[in-house]
């Protein structure tokens, strides 16, 4: 395969591209172009189409010519006459809040505890990380094993399985959200723990020593020195947490198809395409709301990550 | 640790400081043991329930010592829910999706990491952002596209991307490529430029440089990503639920819903089904934990 004909000229200092044969250049174009086209076509074309379709009405029957522009009507309908929207938004906010305020700090706490020489370290790490490899769909089944009315663990332990005193965890709004959040946090904390374990290892040990010499106690050392030094990881963790909160879908869909107190924006989007009524423009408008919130997290993150890179490059 | 009394005060001093160190250590261990037990409880409970026949729990209650433990629920779940069929579906999807994702991502990563094109950074940003989007933000148009895009009969019995294995594989590849490209390009940037430059100067083609120099050196990152992506794709529920309509064509994670309808009133059977479905990822994790964790941290810490 190697073509050895073009090494004669002393053109090497002009950069690597000058060393390339035409075949090489074609190959490079393909290696870059084919995956990029696949990605753009299946991810970004739909993302942009969501935005365009959100200003239209279309039930999907008939060609693209039957798409009818209606301006902002989908959005005004969503906020005014679409009952599940505000509950769904509230649940997404609660979901995010619980992950950010409880699950993420607990994951970080576990990482801090495990960032030292202790007996059984590997075992603890493996255990805390185990839920992360389970799909959220399976976790939905585990939620059922815990919170089912008559057969679930919780009611059996509480002795609330008879008709008079039965607690219908999954059938009662708020209670069911609590139940799924508990398990979403179970999985999330392990994920965050692993990220922070890597983050803690990346902190220069001399920083801690310096803090100790200056008389800082362990919690001061952590919050004033170590935590700020982990800034890059903190950003990644925050972005991952936000995205996880917005992506939440499988868990509630397995538990009760995302109804009755478990509405989420992701579920509403899905219901508007595979539900009985196929309202494409309307579903797209819901998707755009989700998109706008996600980009609010993604764009600053990318700017931060890649801006720093281009500055050092 | 044996403290032989040699001289009075010194011994007392060491015992004292040892005791001060031991108390927090014991508290820490106690906390960790307790939390670990709590952490394992859901899985232990699922396994325990799955091992008990329905009649046993009906008679003694769910929170009780078992009268009988056997694998009957597993046998029933395996045969009644036709699990082998769905494992096969998953294999048909995960295999090609995994290979294509890693191959295409390493192409892009290689070019971006080794050749100073103008739009490299923009491209990386597009890939990374694409992978971070919630799936639901693109599903509505994607669903319509899948209904419109034809495929030859031998690739899809519907003649469309919709309701076909190719369709599910395609979206996995397109979506997961974002993350893998990001990780691989960061990893490849840490490989000394001299290696590839020397190869090119020696007259090796771009392909040879990629395949014989870069790919072997990237193997640790590829192994980590393969482990991680296997789990991601295996665990997918959403794409298959929406883009595959025929229940019999769904991969095992999304086929769980069939199981739910089938075993509606029998938690023991559901537990056995859930354990069986989770088993491949748990085994992968236990065997390849190192790769798994590295895959995640490579993504987060940039090489």
Q: Helical segment tally of chain B?
A: 13
Overall shape of chain A: it is: flat
Low-confidence stretches of chain B: 1-17
**CATH topology label of the domain at 92-268 and 284-301 in chain B:** MetI-like fold
Give the proportion of residues in helices of chain A. 55-70%
Based on the model shown, name its key terms.
heterodimer; A: 313 residues; mainly alpha; MetI-like fold; two-stranded antiparallel sheet; 13 helices; 2 strands; B: 303 residues; 76% helix; disordered N terminus
Ordered list of secondary-structure elements with their pairings:
The complex is a heterodimer of chains A (313) and B (303).
Chain A lengths: L21 H32 L2 E2 L10 E2 L3 H9 L3 H30 L6 H9 L6 H12 L5 H6 L16 H27 L3 H9 L4 H12 L1 H17 L2 H7 L8 H10 L5 H33 L1
Antiparallel strand pairs in A: 1-2
Helix pairs in contact in A: 1-13, 3-7, 3-10, 5-7, 5-11, 7-10, 8-9, 10-13, 12-13
Chain B lengths: L7 H43 L3 H7 L11 H9 L2 H32 L5 H13 L3 H13 L16 H25 L3 H9 L4 H12 L1 H16 L3 H6 L8 H11 L4 H35 L2
Structure commentary:
- The complex is a heterodimer of chains A (313) and B (303).
- Chain A has 313 residues and is an all-alpha fold.
- Helix content of chain A is 68%, strand content 1%.
- The N terminus of chain A is likely disordered.
- Chain B has 303 residues and is mainly α.
- Chain B is globular.
- The N terminus of chain B is likely disordered.
- At the A-B interface, helix 1, helix 3, helix 4, helix 5 and helix 6 of A face helix 1, helix 4, helix 5, helix 6 and helix 7 of B.
Short description:
Chain A is an all-alpha fold. Chain A has helices at residues 22-53, 73-81, 85-114, 121-129, 136-147, 153-158, 175-201, 205-213, 218-229, 231-247, 250-256, 265-274, 280-312, and strands at residues 56-57, 68-69.
